[in-house]
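Much of the work behind modern protein science is quiet bookkeeping, done one molecule at a time. The fold becomes a row of whole numbers, each drawn from a learned catalogue of backbone shapes. The protein below has been through that process, and both of its lines are reproduced in full.
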Amino acid sequence: MTSTPQEKARLLRALHRPGEPLVLANAWDAVSARLVAAAGARAVATASASVSWTLGSPDGGGADREQVLAQTALVVRAVEELPVTADLESGYAATAAGVGETVAALLTTGAVGVNLEDEGRPLAEAAERIAAARAAADAAGVPAFVNARTDVFLHQLGEPDGRLGEAVDRLRAYVEAGADGVFVPGVADPATIAALVEAVPAPLNVLAGPGSPSVPELAKLGVARVSLGPGLAKVAFAAVRRAAEEVYASGTYTALDGGLTYQELNELARGRRRGRQDG
């Protein structure tokens, strides 16, 4: 079993292989993390939106940092044999120094990776925040994987024909500042993905969902990490809405068919990661 934070951090780094991507079906609590682990995950990641919604807060800075870190700690304990990387939006801090403090606090939970997004900040400011995250991890003695995200494509910043160049400039600067990997949500075009792989000297992470190339297709493009982001949480919450609306509208319960059993969920809560059972 991989036990120390240093060992887990080294494993997480080793799992980022262009052409053989690390697939992350992002979780948000202990049971979702154990379900993902039982499905075959080699590492577990949180999604900031999923965690924020679970805490009753909107994504995009609405969540309380301490609550997010506490939720992350629950995920880490739930899958203690696997490395965990946490999505911390832009670091829940106004300054680069604050980002460093957030990352230092994250590492005390046992997580060994972090996603940090630039939110369209000026490049120099965004790079400074990545450097602060790197310094905090180094000071803690944990070779944590810092994944730097740019929102150029996700939020369609600037002119369409200039987005690739802007993203590349930003990502290269983040790598120079200490990022281990780069994350570009909002891209699905194979040619654009291939161009990013070619232009940026770091493992590329993309966000996948309906309409995206499949994992094998992304592997052929040289992608090193594939994330589902809040996709699983959206599906789970949609199931709750369907079942609730049905019982209140018609008094029937067909939407409850296919759910996990009481026994399965109890075993997951106890820490036993098992597949579906009858009964």
Remarks:
- The longest helix spans residues 231-250.
- The two ends are 32 Å apart (CA to CA).
- The beta strands are 22-24, 44-45, 84-87, 113-117, 145-149, 181-183, 204-207, 225-227.
- The first strand starts at residue 22 and ends at 24.
